[in-house]
Design brief:
globular; 27% strand; alpha+beta; binds zinc ion; single chain; two-stranded parallel ribbon
């Protein structure tokens, strides 16, 4: 089932999400719906707050970043082909390496892309959809997608990483998104705008 994606301006996107346990109702159905929702919107990651649930869960599928250029392989794209994962109650324990810029987008902030700087390598612990526990490191685009989604469960958006000036330049576009004044080819839920007075 395709779920509506919560748009910029909804308070759920600014909230630190809660951990879940094995008793969380209909978790596998939720994960399945999140994948369907993400693929329908051509995303490479989706965090639970983006579908209105303030829980520490996100999914990724980096296949669209798979590198098919054999002559000049992109080192940041190594192994992206089979990079499909579920992260439950993740904790980024360390980030290291030089910061590098990448033009990020977000399904909750359609049609805006901006350069965001993040460190290259992360160490993360998490449970998968079967509650197997992992401690792993990721780098390049894998780390990038995880860092972006992890931010979501911390209540942080990629626009929060931009300079004050850049955010000011985007403010009109962002307020249009929260009012639903944007054409998007997937289902979205826009924050309710309270009428004045
Ligand atoms: Zn996002």
């Amino acid at each position: 089932m395709i779920l509506p994606i919560v748009a910029y301006g909804d308070p759920v996107l600014k909230k630190e999400a809660e951990e879940i346990d094995k008793d969380y109702p209909s978790l596998s159905k939720l994960i399945e719906d999140m994948f369907e929702t993400m693929y329908n919107a051509s995303g490479v990651g989706l965090a639970a707050p983006q579908i209105g649930r303030s829980i520490r869960l996100f999914i990724v599928d980096g296949s669209p970043f798979a590198d098919d250029d054999e002559d000049e392989p992109d080192p940041m794209a190594a192994g992206m082909g089979g990079f499909k994962k579920v992260f439950i109650n993740p904790i980024i324990t360390e980030e290291k390496g030089d910061e590098w810029g990448f033009n990020e987008g977000c399904l909750s902030i359609p049609k805006i892309r901006e350069e965001v700087y993040r460190q290259k390598t992360i160490f993360i612990s998490y449970f998968d959809e079967n509650w197997n526990y992992y401690e792993e490191s990721f780098d390049g685009y894998k780390a990038r997608i995880i860092q972006h989604e992890y931010d979501h469960i911390e209540g942080i958006l990629f626009t929060d990483h931009l300079s004050v000036l850049k955010r000011k330049l985007l403010s009109k576009k962002l307020s249009n998104i929260s009012k639903g004044e944007i054409i998007v080819d997937y289902k979205m839920k826009f924050p309710v705008i309270k009428k004045g007075r």
